[in-house]
Design a protein that fits this description.
Helices cover 27% and strands 30% of the residues. With 244 residues, it is an alpha+beta fold. It starts with a helix and ends with a strand.
């Protein structure tokens, strides 16, 4: 009997642990309505009703890390259709951030996703228990993720909808590790190699001899890059890579 009692206690402990873990992973989303700096009103639950996934970027205009992270988040925003497809990105400024400061923040970081003031309106920071900035949350299916880092966005989006961006490299010749980009010429002939950022801007170009491998280090971490290879006989290969 004592043995069975101990087993019951163990099972109860394991159940409580799993339940606690699941509660830490996700919580129910709380509805809110905000107006962007451009005067566009949005409602969270209305967008969820339309099967949208919303990436919430909580920031403050006095936060240096927020300035660094904003362009990276914007690259994700552009990758997924700049608000025209399933993913929406909302920048939510802290109540202490003045409207003019938000406008300057947008101009300085050159971000394209909409930003919202919380001055004189719903304090979304309080609703979601935001204690520091930047903080990223993903909302889908009326559930909200825990705080995630920039380089976890794609992985977490895969729980909401198929992103079609592979974290595991499709081609073993092109991959990233330790903030370095590794590229190997897979052909038995020379190739022209070009690296673009997510906006299509050419970052660098090179020429690789047959079978040659090269490592590229002068790139920004946590950014999406597109690597194009073109062989002398016209063979092509293209791969999206997240530098991590």
């Amino acid at each position: 009997m004592k043995f069975q009692h101990n087993i019951s206690l163990i099972l109860l402990f394991l159940f409580a642990t799993v339940l606690s873990y699941s509660q830490e992973k996700q919580n129910e989303a709380i509805d809110f309505t905000l107006t962007s700096t451009e005067g566009v009103e949005v409602n969270l639950f209305n967008e969820l009703d339309n099967d949208k996934t919303i990436l919430l970027n909580f920031f403050s205009t006095s936060c240096g890390s927020c300035v660094i992270e904003a362009p990276k988040i914007d690259s994700i925003y552009q990758q997924f259709g700049s608000g025209t497809e399933q993913l929406l990105v909302w920048g939510i400024a802290s109540p202490e951030s003045p409207l003019l400061g938000i406008d300057n923040f947008i101009a300085n970081t050159e971000i394209r996703y909409p930003c919202f003031t919380t001055q004189g309106t719903t304090d979304v920071f309080e609703l979601y228990g935001i204690l520091y900035t930047p903080m990223l949350l993903i909302v889908c299916d009326y559930m909200v993720s825990p705080s995630i880092s920039y380089n976890e966005i794609i992985e977490n989006l895969n729980y909401c909808f198929p992103t079609k961006i592979e974290i595991v490299e499709v081609y073993p010749e092109i991959y990233s590790k330790n903030e370095l980009l590794y590229i190997k010429n897979p052909y038995n002939e020379d190739v022209s190699m070009r690296i673009f950022d997510i906006t299509g801007r050419l970052i660098l170009s090179d020429r690789l001899s047959a079978g040659l491998s090269k490592t590229y280090s002068r790139l920004d971490s946590n950014q999406i890059y597109i690597v194009n290879l073109l062989s002398v006989s016209g063979k092509t290969q293209s791969q999206k890579v997240i530098l991590k």
